[in-house]
Specification:
The protein is an alpha+beta fold. Helix content is 31%, strand content 16%. The chain has helices at residues 25-32, 88-95, 105-117, 125-131, 142-153; strands at 3-9, 12-18, 51-54, 57-60, 73-75. The longest helix has 13 residues, at 105-117. Bound molecules: FE2/S2 (inorganic) cluster (FES). FE2/S2 (inorganic) cluster binds next to loops.
């Protein structure tokens, strides 16, 4: 069985033929759509490294079947900057040292973008930590990540 879906990926319409109904959005992005910025950590919904926006909402792309996304609008880390101009959340992560090794950073940033869009960020560190709790950082750069979200919310 095969299925054709059409996505809007970072503003561009993409038609995709799926031969395997089990392919995840994460694998589709990385292996077929040349979007390696979205990272694979646990591949089971526990680390948040694979976070992207689907129709403006944060999702773990490793848990999202591509076959369910016909007509969806997907935003990945590659879609945030406008030319040379970084997205304000990307700027805030740099300014606040919101990373160490950087592997989780695309997922952290996409989650922060989603959290701010949901109006759930604010300035309260505890509230930000709760809102970002689905994104694990093995370097434990949480203090900088929280400051980056505060910075981006201002
Ligand atoms: Fe998707 Fe870890 S790779 S949550």
């Amino acid at each position: 069985m095969s299925l054709s879906i059409t996505l809007t990926l970072n503003g561009a319409t993409r038609a995709v033929a799926l031969d395997d109904m089990r392919v995840t959005l994460l694998d589709l992005l990385r292996e077929r759509l040349a979007m390696p910025g979205t990272k694979k950590g646990c591949d089971r919904g526990q680390c948040g490294a694979c976070t992207v926006l689907v129709n403006g909402k944060r999702v773990n792309s490793c848990l999202t079947l591509a076959a369910t996304l016909d007509g969806a609008e997907i935003t990945t880390i590659e879609g945030l900057a406008k030319g040379e101009a970084l997205h304000p959340v990307q700027e805030a992560f740099i300014k606040a040292d919101g990373f160490q090794c950087g592997y989780c950073t695309p997922g952290q940033i996409m989650s922060a973008v989603g959290l701010i869009a949901e109006g759930r960020a604010g300035d309260d560190p505890e509230r930000i930590r709760e809102g970002m709790s689905g994104n694990i950082c093995r370097c434990a750069a949480y203090h900088g990540i929280t400051r980056a979200v505060q910075e981006a919310t201002r």
